């Protein structure tokens, strides 16, 4: 074996959290992604985490996915998973405007808890197979995507449309953030890791990162 071309590709572990109102399809999306199966009816109170290997741009990552159920008895528990989570899928159903409105509060909470405006996120409009009962116009979701600088996908857990794409996009954002850390400079551009393994970016770098992010537009 030639050592010249041998590169160590450490397996990274990424923690993502699936958030959104009850009934939008968080568990169905997670089951489709992790197990490749459609489950018609999920216990709405089950909150569980899943580990799965994912290949992202030729890199192997171990993804830990927390499928939340909004059943936390203590605010502290919710804060804990928001702290540990490195990236978030914010899911609503295209058949429910209120489920989209709920994402605003969740995003604010994530930003507050992590004290970072640039947490990797993907906005997911699920149940795209139910076009005939759509309640959220695409333009409205696009608007939110632009405002938040987060990509928007419409998915169907039922038909498996865009299911892999949303998880892979989130992993890609996390890897990019991780690469930034490894390349990290010093002084004003320094990146710091807090006690939870989350990356903190200096104000200068944060601004640059945000502007770079404008290129990421909504994808369907
Ligand atoms: N038509 C359709 N129904 C879905 C889809 N995803 C979930 N559902 C249904 O929506 C309901 C709630 O799904 P679930 O994953 O339990 O929602 P959760 O509370 O967000 O975890 C179930 O009856 C699912 O069958 C989808 O993409 N299309
Ligand atoms: Mg569920």
UniProtKB/TrEMBL annotation:
Source species, domain of life: Eukaryota
Cellular localisation: Cell membrane
GO CC list: plasma membrane
Gene Ontology BP terms: regulation of establishment of cell polarity; signal transduction
Catalysed conversion reaction: GTP + H2O = GDP + phosphate + H(+)
UniProt entry keywords in alphabetical sequence: Cell membrane, GTP-binding, Hydrolase, Lipoprotein, Membrane, Methylation, Nucleotide-binding, Prenylation
Pfam families the record matches: Ras
GO MF, one annotated term: GTP binding
Membrane-protein topology: Lipid-anchor
SMART domains in alphabetical order: RAB, RAN, RAS, RHO
Enzyme Commission identifier(s): 3.6.5.2
PROSITE patterns the record matches: RAB, RAS, RHO
InterPro entries in UniProt: P-loop_NTPase, Small_GTP-bd, Small_GTPase, Small_GTPase_Ras-type
Family: Belongs to the small GTPase superfamily. Ras family.
Name of the featured protein: Ras-related protein RSR1
């Amino acid at each position: 074996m030639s050592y010249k071309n041998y590169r160590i590709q450490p397996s990274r572990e990424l923690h993502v959290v699936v958030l959104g109102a009850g009934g939008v399809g968080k568990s169905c999306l997670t089951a489709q992604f992790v197990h490749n199966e459609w489950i018609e009816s999920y216990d709405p109170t089950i909150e569980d985490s899943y580990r799965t290997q994912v290949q992202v741009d030729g890199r192997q990552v171990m993804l830990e996915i927390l499928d939340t159920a909004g059943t936390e008895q203590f605010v502290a528990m919710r804060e804990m998973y928001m702290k540990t989570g490195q990236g978030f899928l914010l899911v609503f159903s295209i058949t429910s405007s209120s489920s989209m409105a709920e994402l605003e509060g969740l995003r604010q909470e994530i930003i507050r808890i992590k004290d970072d405006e640039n947490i990797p996120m993907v906005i997911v409009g699920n149940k795209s197979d139910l076009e005939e009962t759509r309640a959220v116009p695409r333009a409205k979701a696009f608007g939110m995507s632009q405002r938040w600088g987060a990509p928007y996908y419409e998915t169907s857990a039922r038909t498996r449309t865009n299911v892999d794409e949303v998880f892979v996009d989130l992993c890609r954002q996390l890897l990019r953030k991780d690469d930034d850390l490894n390349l990290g400079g010093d002084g004003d551009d320094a990146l710091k890791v807090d006690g939870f393994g989350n990356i903190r970016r200096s104000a200068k770098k944060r601004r640059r990162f945000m502007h770079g992010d404008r290129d990421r537009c909504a994808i369907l």
